[in-house]
Amino acid sequence: MSENKNTIVDLDIIQPCYNPLPGWEQSVWLHYTDVMELLPGVAVNLIIVNDGSVKNIDDKTVQFLKERIKDFQYISYEPNRGKGNALRTGIKASKGRLQIYTDIDFPYELIHIKEIYELLVQGADIVSGVRKKNYYQTLSPQRWLASKMSQILNRLFLRLPFNDTQSGLKGINRKGRMIFLRTTIERYLADTEFLALAAKTRKLKLVPHEVSLREGIILSKMSFNTFMREFRNFITVYSIVFKRKA
Q1: Strand order of the sheet with strand 72-77?
Q2: For the whole model, what pTM was predicted?
Q3: Do 10 and 51 fall into the same domain?
Q4: What is the DSSP letter of 138?
Q5: pLDDT tens string 163-201
Q6: In whole angstroms, what is the distance from residue 87 CA to residue 95 CA?
Q7: CA atoms within 13 A on the CB side of 80
Q8: How many domains does the chain contain in total?
């Protein structure tokens, strides 16, 4: 872990990581540099959580980032436990006033990180990326179906103020952090559990914010087994949220 303990951190950017593509470390460095240019004067700490990867991440790739990013934390554990666990691990380790989490390839337009940061500074407790309609035109049939099913279930059962919970780009302050650390789902639907718990909490400012994918981003396919596992997780989320007091 590389960290400047004397720096007061304004913002932690948290990225879960599992079997990233070759060259991921150079991509992270380039996009992190662009984010820093968008946020001049903001002390930004980058936290990467290696969720039990078995390829493309090693001491050399991590050292590449340690040598270039002054405020950098690297957390690694085995075995793979899922995105929800990786996010909780990174958020628990964060020290900044605010946190934004996103995927390791920075899939959304970087300007959205600045926009979400500014909304948090202005008083939002949670800012949740909501994907624009053109996002769904880029999806495989399996992912399109999963996304639409997720939105229908969210609307019918979870009573959320908006239906898109899975953008993977969200910002939180201290109040939002406390809610996220109450989640229990290990994998993707930790996002849904988080927003469902937040929606039940009184006096919490939850703000949706439209986001767009960066040009050239290719999303992976979703297998039938993954689809069924996440459907079972949705049932678990429903049970957890509506049996638990806000």
Answers
A1: 72-77, 44-51, 11-17, 98-101, 170-172, 126-131, 206-211
A2: 0.87
A3: yes
A4: G
A5: 788 888 999 999 999 999 999 999 888 999 999 999 888
A6: 14
A7: 10
A8: 2
Q: What average pLDDT does range 17-22 have in this prediction? A: 96
Residues 33, 124: one domain? Answer: no
- Can you give the pLDDT at residue 166? 82
Q: Rounded to whole angstroms, how far apart are CA atoms 43 and 38?
A: 12
CA-based R_g, the chain, Å: 17
Expressed as residue numbers, the domain containing 69 is 1-106
Judge contact between 196 and 158, C-beta under 8 A: yes
| 123 plus 228 within the same structural domain | yes
Q: With contact defined as beta carbons under 8 Å apart, do 129 and 211 qualify?
A: yes
The strand pair at 170-172 and 126-131 is best described as antiparallel
**In the predicted model, what is the mean pLDDT of residues 137-158?**
70
Please name every residue paired with 211 in a beta bridge, in sequence order, or none if there are none.
131
d(CA 238, CA 179): 16
Q: Provide, for the chain, the percentages of residues in helix, strand and coil under a 3-state DSSP scheme, each rounded to the nearest 5.
A: 45, 15, 40
Angle of the 24-38 helix axis to the 59-66 helix axis, nearest 10 = 20
- Please state, in angstroms and rounded to a whole number, the distance separating the CA atoms of residues 130 and 40: 26
The mean pLDDT value for 126-134 works out to 86
CA angle 25, 227, 236 (to 5 degrees): 100
